[in-house]
Amino acid sequence: MFTDTARIIIKSGKGGDGHVSFRREKYVPDGGPNGGDGGKGGDLIFEVDNGLNTLNDYHIKRKFAAENGEEGGGNRCHGKSGKDLVLRVPYGTIVREAASGKIITDMSGDNRREVILRGGKGGLGNMHFATSTMQAPRFAQPGQQGIELEVKLELKCIADVGLVGFPNVGKSSIITMASNAKPQIANYHFTTLTPHLGVVGRGYESFVMADIPGIIEGASEGAGLGFDFLRHIERCRILLHVVDAAGSEGRNPIEDIEKINNELFMYDENLLKRPMIIAANKTDISDEYLDEIKAKYEDVYPICAATGEGIPELINRLFDVLKENPDKPVIYEKEYDVYEHLTEELPLEIFKESADVYVVQGPRIEKMLGYTKLESEKGFAFFQRYMKEQKIIDELIKLGLEEGDTVRVGGLEFEYYE
To answer: Torsion-angle region of residue 411: left (phi > 0), alpha (psi -120 to 50) or beta?
Structure first.
């Protein structure tokens, strides 16, 4: 079974709790605290697997969770970190936040592996809380909770050329003759239910061709399996319309082209801005409509997919058009940041502590810092963007923040520069 969408619940691992214990040895009856830290929870990771072309694995099982970190032990022993959970998906899979539909990540291009949910930090053991006034702390820090999120997986085929056309016009035959794909071919009036990808080669050159399942009228409004079909066209650089130039199905091929173009326009008007080539198939039966098609459209190639006649000329033209339009396939930008949304409703305090020191504190900032690795360039960039997008910098400036002043954020100190 081919599955190109799935709705699943993912969760990162909880951090292990810090441990409460005290040093107890012979001749040391009142030893100090030695409770160890909890282990970090496992990350939830998505990774591209080139051997996959379907989301079947996520159609049956719906909940996936990384391993929790273990509690710290006595004698300063650190708890074991939880194992990461790697979910393997086909190249071209988009991960969306289920409720909003916003894109979390697009597993395409150079993005082959991405941590979607980071595991919770382990809690500190009681050895960290000893002070001159509290030498025997009987408490430890609990581990940070993991993050649970419902996401929608959506597979969009990545191909240079997308074959579109009504059922039974010969798309499967074309991809068989032109590439290494071997779809099932028969003379039937129902449509293929699976997009087929094939690599078309010419010397040292090659491109990927996709046989997009047949489109029917009303597909852009969800008729038939409209949305399921149309999503696979979005990444294609060229649209290859395949029509029955003989009219053997009792349809006018020009009307077919116009109907399909209308469905593409209704789904996404930008699709019609891409190069379009017409493959006038079944000319061995009759070329009744061929002159009419050529009079209306520029790039028309008469072919017979069953015998291969005209296929080499068509393939050469596709190579030429791809060279004229060297843009890479569409890769979707991130729209939803998990960690920004986790902290939106939590309280936050912003105040001026002294003449040149300002403080940002509260559960909102602490939770954000808990999931952010400030020592990495990417993590620090996220921190700066968060401070700006959450209007925290604006609030500090209203309080009088100037260049060179100190900003204390969740216990960390930074010098402010514009």
So the answer is: left
Closest CA to 207 of 239, 157, 240, 161: 161
DSSP string computed for 342-398: HHTTS--EEEEEETTEEEEESHHHHHHHHT--TTSHHHHHHHHHHHHHTTHHHHHHH
Tell me: the pLDDT tens digits for 266-298?
Answer: 888 888 888 999 999 988 887 788 889 999 998
Taking the CA atoms of 382, 385, 390 and 393 in sequence, report the sign of the dihedral they define. positive
CA-closest candidate to residue 102, choices 382, 368, 391, 340: 340
Q: In whole angstroms, what is the distance from residue 387 CA to residue 378 CA?
A: 14
pLDDT in tens, 194-205: 667 788 888 888
76 vs 68: CA distance, rounded Å: 20
- DSSP H/E element including 206: strand 205-211
Residue whose entry in the numeric block shows the structure tokens 């173009």: 261
Q: Is the pTM of this model over 0.70?
A: no
Tell me the two tokens of residue 223: 């008729």
Q: How many CB atoms lie within 10 A of CB 59?
A: 15
For the purposes of burial, counting CB atoms within 10 Å of the CB of 174, is it exposed (0-12), middle (13-18) or buried (19 or more)? buried
Residue type, 290: L
Query: Which pLDDT band holds residue 43 (cuts at 50, 70, 90)?
Result: very high
The proportion of the chain whose per-residue pLDDT surpasses 70, expressed as a percent, equals 88
Tokens of 414: 């930074």
* Euclidean distance between CA atoms 144 and 121, whole angstroms: 5
Query: What b/e string do you get for 324-343 counting C-beta neighbours within 10 Å, with b at 16 or more?
Result: eeeeebeebeeebebbeebb
From residue 198, alpha-carbon distances to 180, 195, 271, 321, 412 in Å are: 5, 10, 21, 18, 54
- How far CA 163 is from CA of 28, 178, 325, in Å, comes to 80, 12, 17
| CA-based max dimension of the chain | 105
pLDDT of residue 221 exceeding 50: no
CA–CA dist 166, 11 (Å, integer): 42
CA-to-CA separations, 238 to 110, 202, 227, 253, in angstroms, rounded: 22, 18, 19, 19
